[in-house]
Design brief:
This protein is α/β, with parallel strands linked by helices. The chain is 35% helix and 17% strand.
Length: 311
């Protein structure tokens, strides 16, 4: 909304400029304005006033359904120096965690910067709880919609509930009405993929969304707490003592994965992403998305608590 006392637009929300980008000429209203004191004229364009910028950003966030909790997420405030100096891990371990976050940020930021040029696949961010997957995914979506593209944020569970709710005879919506924006959005972010056990209906619905968007060459970003590695087997994978810096209640009967340091960490659950969604959907995701794995402990649980104890 324009500021009523703005000296540039007088509260109209529009100001005139003498230059716009060449590719925007056809999208702007323009006219010839006499040059004072001469018989010459110059062309001017009407463009949104600077005073409406904050409101435009808020409207863009609202149209994209980005929750208020995440509207401030961007790449600049994604912290990649969390673990090495927090006092909970050996320096080598903490540095490995921080490198994992830095690499993930680098890839996602490049995706957002280059979108849509050279963007043939979406992103699948995989990692445990509290590693910053949603922050990075929203930062990409936010940057892209603020450049004028259209995008939508959906929580996986809420999306399924909306679709199921449309089956109620008293509902004012239909399944097609719920799915249409999901299927046709230029950019779609589904957060917390596979967070509920997949019934046949869930697999069919998720498969339909992914396949339709894939066939229409629409880009999808997904986050999930479930990884790809198979369950442990063999003597080298036998349960052992916890490593330094590991959360005290880590369940070492869960599958473990090896970091560049050689340390093994437990997965979020015994299930893999294929277990939750099925091999067919996971296979399609290899085609539709670049996989980015974030290997780090839960920031909210480990680092934040450590900082609170020191303060």
């Amino acid at each position: 909304m324009a500021q009523p006392d703005c000296p540039l637009c007088g509260g109209t929300g529009w100001k005139t400029v003498e230059h716009v980008a060449e590719e925007e000429n056809l999208k702007r209203v323009s006219w010839e304005k006499p040059i004072e004191g001469t018989n010459a004229k110059k062309r001017v364009w009407a463009v949104p006033c600077d005073c409406t910028g904050k409101d435009r950003a808020a409207r863009a966030m609202g149209r994209a359904r980005i929750p208020n909790r995440y509207v401030q997420c961007d790449f600049d405030n994604f912290d990649i120096d969390l673990y090495e100096g927090c006092g909970k891990f050996e320096p080598v371990e903490g540095a490995a965690f921080d490198r994992s976050l830095a690499q993930a940020r680098l890839v996602v930021e490049a995706f957002a910067r280059d979108y849509p040029m050279g963007t043939n696949t979406g992103l699948l961010l995989m990692g445990g709880c509290g590693t910053g997957k949603t922050h990075l995914a929203v930062a990409a979506l936010r940057q892209i919609v603020l450049r004028g593209h259209t995008g939508l944020f959906y929580d996986y569970r809420e999306l399924l509930k909306e679709i199921q709710g449309s089956y109620n005879s008293e509902s004012q919506t239909t399944e097609l009405g719920v799915l249409e924006p999901v299927l046709t959005a230029e950019l779609l972010l589904i957060d917390d993929l596979a967070s509920t056990k997949a019934s046949d209906w869930v697999r069919e619905t998720v498969g339909h969304i992914i396949n339709t968007r894939y066939n229409e060459r629409r880009i999808t970003i997904l986050t999930t707490n479930f990884l790809d590695q198979p369950k442990r087997s063999g003597p080298d994978d036998a349960a052992g003592p916890r490593g330094k810096g590991t959360s005290p209640d880590t369940n070492w009967s869960r599958p473990r994965f090896r970091l560049p340091t050689g340390q093994q960490i437990a997965a979020h659950t015994e299930d893999t992403l294929s277990d939750r969604l099925g091999e067919r959907i996971r296979s399609r995701l290899y085609e539709t998305c670049q996989t980015i794995e974030l290997f780090a402990p839960d920031y909210r649980r480990v680092v934040r608590q450590a900082r609170q104890m020191r303060s």
